[in-house]
């Protein structure tokens, strides 16, 4: 059965500083580039029937440095659109909206959880049609939400899965049940 490999992009200035980054197209930091290169030996021995990436340069650059220079680009893997909270940290948002998280509160001018779920459901459906493993390069919240949808959970249940930059996670099946095989490695 198909395994879905998830790679969060390397560090950017905003991911390092805890600022929400969706549509702002930031490059990787030097550390981000270095850790992205370190993914190549870990992924190079694997065989992938399909490699997908978010259109953002941080995901595409991570893919290239990891040895996958020409992934298929899909907008469905873009980060959750943060709207008015683009570039703002959770701490700053909570000064006016106590307890705010992307998982539990609306995002003014941004993307609703249902819209995120719909596009990630398209990714899940596509991956499950592939004969072989699939590798995706994307972002923290979108990959956590993708994992939740893979497991048949509400998109908001992605809150239960911490995901660091430049990490490899793997989803698959135990018999016919979708499962997490490896996380945040």
From TrEMBL:
> Which keywords fit this entry according to its UniProt record?
Hydrolase
E.C. no: 3.1.3.2
Q: What SUPFAM superfamilies does the database record attribute to this sequence?
A: Phosphoglycerate mutase-like
Q: Which domain of life is it from?
A: Bacteria
MF terms (GO), sorted A to Z: acid phosphatase activity
Under PANTHER family, the record lists: BROAD-SPECIFICITY PHOSPHATASE YOR283W-RELATED, SEDOHEPTULOSE 1,7-BISPHOSPHATASE
Annotated protein name in UniProt: Acid phosphatase
* UniProt gene name: gpm2
């Amino acid at each position: 059965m198909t395994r879905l490999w998830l790679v969060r992009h390397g560090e950017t200035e905003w991911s390092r500083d805890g600022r929400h980054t969706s549509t702002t197209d930031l490059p990787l930091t030097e550390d981000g580039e270095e850790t992205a290169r370190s993914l190549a030996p870990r992924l190079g021995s694997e065989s992938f029937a399909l490699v997908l990436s978010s259109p953002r340069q941080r995901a595409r650059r991570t893919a290239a440095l990891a040895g996958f220079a020409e992934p298929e680009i899909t907008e469905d893997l873009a980060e959750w659109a943060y709207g008015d909270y683009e570039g703002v940290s959770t701490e700053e948002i909570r000064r006016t909206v106590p307890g705010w998280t992307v998982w539990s509160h609306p995002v003014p001018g941004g993307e609703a959880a249902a819209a995120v779920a719909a596009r990630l459901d398209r990714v899940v459906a596509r991956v499950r049609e592939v004969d072989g493993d699939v590798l995706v390069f994307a972002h923290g919240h979108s990959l956590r939400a993708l994992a939740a949808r893979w497991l048949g959970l509400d998109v908001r249940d992605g809150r239960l899965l911490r995901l660091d930059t430049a990490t490899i996670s793997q989803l698959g099946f135990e018999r016919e049940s979708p499962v997490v095989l490896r996380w945040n490695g």
